[in-house]
Structure prediction request, 132 residues.
Amino acid sequence: MKEVDIDDTPTPRGELSLQTVAMPKENNAKGDIFGGWLVSKMDLAAMILASRIAKGRCVTVAINGMAFYTPVQVGSVVSCYTDVLEVGRSSMRINVEVWITHADNFEQVKVTEGEFVFVSLDEKGRTRPVKA
Ligand SMILES: CC(C)(COP(=O)(O)OP(=O)(O)OC[C@H]1O[C@@H](n2cnc3c(N)ncnc32)[C@H](O)[C@@H]1OP(=O)(O)O)[C@@H](O)C(=O)NCCC(=O)NCCS
Prediction:
């Protein structure tokens, strides 16, 4: 019988929307990166995808279910992966995962994830249907 090679290594879910490096100015006295800095990168990554789907202006209306699994060290490559969960009338639910690549061993580890809700707006700030 032929052996099947099953790779159960966890991998990022969604598309790579944003990539950056955690710099010293983003850390606290213990050398860990601030959670708020990561959330701002996740918000940007989700906005890139939401704006593409809505083909226009989008704003964050909610951030749900954030969880941080492990600290991020300065020098890590930070990658934000986005995945559309649902598209409503004017809203889009987007899951964002953050994975880091350690500078020393190049191992990729998931550090946080959260659900971001964006709303599509017109030029006057009124909600605008996504599937117009
Ligand atoms: C986005 C905004 C225009 C929505 O106004 P609103 O009066 O709640 O509008 P609606 O009730 O029609 O909701 C619009 C959509 O957002 C969704 N929504 C609103 N609040 C939500 C929440 N807390 N969680 C999830 N979805 C939400 C609604 O379900 C609706 O989805 P649908 O159109 O797909 O059915 C308004 O809340 C706003 O301007 N907020 C500030 C956004 C902002 O500036 N963000 C950046 C902060 S720095």
Residues 42 and 129 are 24 Å apart (CA to CA). The pocket of coenzyme A is lined by residues 59-62, 88-91, 117, 119, 127 (CB under 6 Å). The helical segments are 35-54.
